[in-house]
Design a protein that fits this description.
Elements: H1 9-18, E1 40-46, E2 50-55, E3 58-63, E4 68-74, E5 89-93, E6 100-105, E7 108-115, E8 119-127, E9 135-138, E10 143-146, E11 150-152, E12 157-159, E13 167-169
């Protein structure tokens, strides 16, 4: 057996400093208007490059590496007062290209595809009048449901809806 090598305090200090975690804090999103509330209702990361965020009635697309907003889409419903909708529910859609997500806005479920870097294309749309808050049951198999609860946007919680109404949603294209 060889005797253990003696390590100097300087060598120990250098090794410990090389193992330190470095954190760089960058502000990705500053979305504020004085005396106004905004509602973050979901996000998805696509292609390990883009962050898709739903705030109020907007879909924002960010480049994760540069922290820059690339595009902003405003979602409007035909025949409705669209001045201030705050209930877009956004969920990632699992597919081989990792470029799709869906939204639920008042029962209008829309499947989007990210194309040409940061442009959106509508793949499919369906309407279920009783769906309020789409929740993901199984991300791998794209299974979603609505548990009958209506999100209380002011308290951050949920209030009971009709407990007898539970819906399962599958979108095929």
């Amino acid at each position: 057996m060889k005797p253990a090598k003696k390590v100097s305090e300087e060598e120990i200090k250098n090794v410990i400093e090389s193992l330190k975690y470095t954190h760089i804090n960058q502000e990705l999103l500053n979305y504020s208007i004085d005396e106004s509330h905004h509602y973050f209702k979901g996000n998805a990361i696509l292609k390990n490059k883009y962050l898709i965020v739903a705030i109020d009635n907007n879909i924002l697309i960010f480049d994760i590496s540069s922290c820059k907003q690339l595009k902003r889409y405003e979602i409007l419903l035909y025949g409705e007062d669209n001045l201030y909708k705050c209930n877009i529910n956004l969920k990632k859609w699992n597919n081989s290209k990792d470029n799709q997500f869906l939204i639920n806005l008042a029962g209008n479920i829309v499947l989007f595809e990210l194309i040409n870097e940061y442009e959106l294309k509508i793949i499919n749309q369906i309407y279920f009048k009783d769906i309020k808050n789409l929740k993901q049951f199984d991300e791998k198999y794209n299974k979603f449901y609505d548990d009958g609860k209506i999100e209380d946007l002011y308290s951050g919680g949920f209030c009971s809806g009709d407990k007898n109404k539970t819906f399962s949603v599958s979108i095929f294209y």
